[in-house]
Amino acid sequence: MNIDNWNYIYKIRNNIKGPTNLLYTPLVNLEKTILCMDWGDTKPYHSAVKRPSAKLIDYFFQKEVELLTEFQGKYWAPTIIDVIDKKIFIEWNDISCNSIIFDSNKDIDKEFINWKDQLSNVIQDIYDFGFLKLSLYSHCFYFDKNKSLKTIDFYSCFRRDQPLIERSFVEELIGVDSLERFNAATTNGYINFEIFFKNTLKSDLVNSTWNNSILSDIVI
User: Fold this and answer.
1) C-alpha to C-alpha distance for 173 and 118, rounded to whole angstroms
2) Which of 3, 114, 152, 163 sees the fewest Cβ atoms within 10 Å?
3) For the residues of 198-212, what is the DSSP string, one character each?
4) Which CATH number applies to 7-217: 1.10.3210, 1.20.120, 3.30.2010, 1.10.510?
C-alpha cells in the first residue's frame, strides 16, 4: 500500500499541534478510512522530539500487533487491514476525538450524545477483559461510521495478572508530564501498572484532553 501522499495525524494540546506519540507515525489516507501506524524510521514527524531506542520501538510494535490481533472482534477494536514492513494498517474514520473536542466548529455533545457512556463502557470492558489500557488520551479514541467509539494504541495495554514491569526498560518513554504518575506506581524499581492505570483515570493532564473530568467519574 503506497502511503506517499497520506497525511499525518496530530494531537492538539494547549492549542499546539504535535505528534501523538514517540513510537510510530500515524498517517491517514485521503479518503480518511485507513490509518497507517508506521513504526519505521519516520524522522519528519518526530523531528522536534527524540524517539526511543530501536529495541524499545520494536518491543512495542510487536506488542501492538499481538494485542490488535487478540482484540479482533471486540466492538472497541479497529479491524486490521494489513501488517507489512513495520506498518500496521487499520480501519479509521475521519478524525480522532481530540480533533473533535478542540475544533471550534464541532460539538462532541451534540454529534455523539452518549459519548461519555461509550467511553466509560470501553474502558471498563477492556479492564474486564483482563487488560489495563494506559493510553486514555482523547487522541487515542475515534468514532466509526456508526458513531461507535473505538480505541487505538494497544501497545499501552498490560495484562492485569502481569502488572509489573522493570522501570529501567521503559524509562526513556517517561516524560515530565507523566513523571508523578510513574513515581507513584514504582516500588523497588518496578512499575505497577494497576496503580498507574487508576491514577491515570484521575490525572488532570489526561482528563484535560477530554476537556472535562469524565475519566475521573469512572470507578473501577
Assistant:
1) 29
2) 114
3) HHHHT-HHHHHTTTS
4) 1.10.510
* Alpha-carbon distances, residue 217 vs 113, 139, 207 (angstroms): 17, 19, 10
- Residue-by-residue DSSP string for 113-181: TTHHHHHHHHHHHHHHTTEEE---SGGGEEE-TTS-EEE--GGGEEETT--EEEHHHHGGG--GGGHHH
pLDDT tens, position by position, 18-32: 999 999 999 999 999
What is the tens place of the pLDDT at every residue in 67-122?
A: 999 999 999 999 999 999 999 999 999 999 999 999 999 999 999 999 999 999 99
Q: How many CA atoms lie within 13 A of 17 on its CB side?
A: 6
Please answer whether residues 158 and 180 qualify as being in contact, where contact means their C-beta atoms are separated by less than 8 angstroms: no
CA atoms within 13 Å, Cβ hemisphere of 49: 17
3-class secondary structure, 11: strand
Nearest in space to 123 (alpha carbons), one of 136, 110, 111: 136
Which of 24, 178, 18 lies closest to 98 in space, CA to CA? Answer: 18
At residue 28, the 3 state secondary structure works out as strand
Listed by start position, the domains of the chain span 7-217
Cα maximum dimension of the chain: 49
